[in-house]
From TrEMBL, chains A, B:
All residue ranges annotated as the HTH tetR-type domain in the record: 16-76
Taxonomic classification: Bacteria, Bacillati, Actinomycetota, Actinomycetes, Pseudonocardiales
DNA-binding region positions on the chain: 39-58
UniProt-listed Pfam families: TetR_N
Species this chain originates from: Lentzea alba
This protein's name: TetR/AcrR family transcriptional regulator
SUPFAM superfamilies: Homeodomain-like, Tetracyclin repressor-like, C-terminal domain
Sorted UniProt keywords: DNA-binding, Transcription, Transcription regulation
Any one Gene Ontology molecular-function term assigned to this protein's record: transcription cis-regulatory region binding
Amino acid sequence: MTSSAEPVSRAERKKQELRREIIDAAFDCFAERGYHATGIADVATRLGIGHGTFYRYFQNKRDIVDHVVDELVARITGALTAENAPDAVSTLAEYREQSARIGESLARIFGEDPRVPRLLLFEAPGIDRAMAERILDLFDLAAAMTAAYLSHGVELGYLRADLDVGNTARAINGMILGSAITTLRTPEDQRALSEAVRRVMYDGIASS
Amino acid sequence: MTSSAEPVSRAERKKQELRREIIDAAFDCFAERGYHATGIADVATRLGIGHGTFYRYFQNKRDIVDHVVDELVARITGALTAENAPDAVSTLAEYREQSARIGESLARIFGEDPRVPRLLLFEAPGIDRAMAERILDLFDLAAAMTAAYLSHGVELGYLRADLDVGNTARAINGMILGSAITTLRTPEDQRALSEAVRRVMYDGIASS
DNA sequence: GTTCCGGAACTGACACGCGATTCCGTTGTG
DNA sequence: CACAACGGAATCGCGTGTCAGTTCCGGAAC
């Protein structure tokens, strides 16, 4: 990843550092007060820099949210792909374990810092058509990943052969989405909710 | 409903009519261009009235979104409560039918006019803390309704006795939420998605 | 039936205020 | 000392909300 040409001088480091700090500060502000309610001045003040300096690092206000969202998306997709290849499992029990592991990863990201789901789900979509599309893209990506897991399971035979892979993936992701939103109010009983999701997935709701 | 004292004069009718037209026009604008991107002038122009007139009917810009959302919420809760009392069913088969019926109602509201989910899920939460809370309240309300259905099923024995009613309700609503969001891009295969949701609920995903 | 009157409703030019972006004098650095 | 980075005052455009003038309407007087 970071192995390409690195002409990083001494002070060049400082610049990149400030750049990241600005992104972080912007994230803080956007998540707390909302995108439209925060001004460039707010972001700058939080860092103790002049707001003119901001424009030495980013084109404009709209420019920076993209970078903020970039980071969040990277964080999430990173957590999802780490050590969780679809073909790493071959039985229902293993699959169940893996889904629990993935659910835990997501719960950690969303639960530890509710600002993440707030920004991604509540703030971002209302900024722009373009940003709304980005969020929808993210959903589609997530659906594709989930679908890959399901397909693998169907092939190996531990999931229903007649599973509508694509739509079931959306349904499952919907439950995860619902969980993420729930953390906005009650970051506590994440565990129980996550368990309930898995019970629905594996056992359904009907009595035996 | 509309049986209370009605001192409605002739011209009074006109006022109420215009009032509603303004709400509808505002809905159109907010859903198309987004809340922050639309000005009062846009709403007024769409109706061919001066934007000053707007202020004779509503306090300010923030005021009217509340009314717009009111109407949407009323439309949804109306569709959900109509002929669908939790205690109207007593077997799993009936319950399954009822959930299909409810799903169809929601699919109709969301699918027929994607502007409804767009405004409610993508625009509204980013307007305001207060509005975000309203949307969360709506989720909570929906969860409570779903939980009531589940509780009834547990009591009559056609749903799992050890069902975590509250959290399972959230999970199910999450799937519905996911469906609503899906309509933003593909208003078509609503049927298949809805079916997939029900399969997950009743049969789970594992192979028998 | 016609005219006139009073008040309600409507209008759009205007006065703000606010925040994004720019610009240039200042400050720090090699 | 030259050069780059910084800061914040100044600029600029935009959208909200106001208000004084105008139009509209129903009903009373003739």
